[in-house]
Amino acid sequence: MPKVSVIVPAYNAMQYLPETVDSVLQQTFTDFEVLIIDDGSLDNIKEWVSNLTDKRVKLISQKNQGVSLARNIGISQAQGEYIAFLDSDDLWYATKLEKQVCCLDNNPRIGLVHSWMSVIDERGKPTGKVMTSDTEGSVWKQLVEQNTVACSSVMVRRLCFQTLGGFSPRQNEYPVDVEDWEMWIRIAAHYPFAVIKEPLICYRQHISNTSKNWQSLEKAYRIVIEKTFHTAPPELLYLKNRSYGHANLRLAWKCLQSKDLDYKQALNFWQQALIHYPQLRYCWEYIRLSLAITALQLFGANNYTQVLKLIYALRRHLFSLGQETFIYPKDKN
Prior knowledge:
Layout (H helix, E strand, L loop, with lengths): L3 E7 L6 H9 L6 E8 L5 H6 L6 E6 L4 H11 L4 E4 L5 E2 L3 H11 L5 E9 L5 E6 L8 H6 L9 E3 H7 L14 H10 L4 E12 L2 H4 L3 H17 L8 H19 L5 H14 L7 H38 L12
Parallel strand pairs: 1-2, 1-4, 2-3, 6-9
Antiparallel strand pairs: 4-8, 5-9, 6-7, 6-8
Helix pairs in contact: 9-10, 10-11, 10-12, 11-12
């Protein structure tokens, strides 16, 4: 049996899926299987997989039921001792599996290991942004405040799912980027986490994952928070307001990142964040959001967008100056 099962949910994902799977097949650690869960796709995914020569790649097809149930199908069919998840548009550095397998092998108490991630654009070019996390050890308190664990970065012992069950099947209530948060919270209640403090994945940022409807996202955050604290010990209920505070910060950013650039709603979430958790005024994320809202007030939507483009271009340029330190997944040795 393979040591690791890699689960890749896919729904009409052929624009990026070949590159995603290629980043898995080029791993330095080779004892794995790749389970692509075709979630009712209407593209040519079956034909594409049938032409692959690597027998480690397997296709499992189901009617469209959402990413949570797709991951659960993968978990039920997985043979590996460890399970890694990869979204169909993200990429892995070549040593991702090797380093995380080593971590779990050497630390039998750890239930989940994750990593930092680099952000790339739609074309796969680095944006210069690296998302870091210090979520390790006993992390339940950290995770209920906010999710800092990217799904494509995790490797989990299969035992965790055998003990706790899979992702919540109520997919219609959870947007794609929330159901994993609830899962990590459940795991964190029973197992310590570890983090590899270097980027091991490339998160692809594009319009379909940056402009989620904030109304749906607000509902999903509320469901996760209420579910989590419904069974929390009384002495930990003080964290509930912190969780709502951070959730409102994220919702404010979603409003600013949407096509419609909903300034008034962003301002409302910004104010609600502080009402729930006043200490947020001292955190960098709140200060950065305050600067963004102020800039939008001063310059207007069009000029604000142009300023952002200039900032992003400058960041990419500065990043390119040190590009020798950045190695794309397919080139890493």
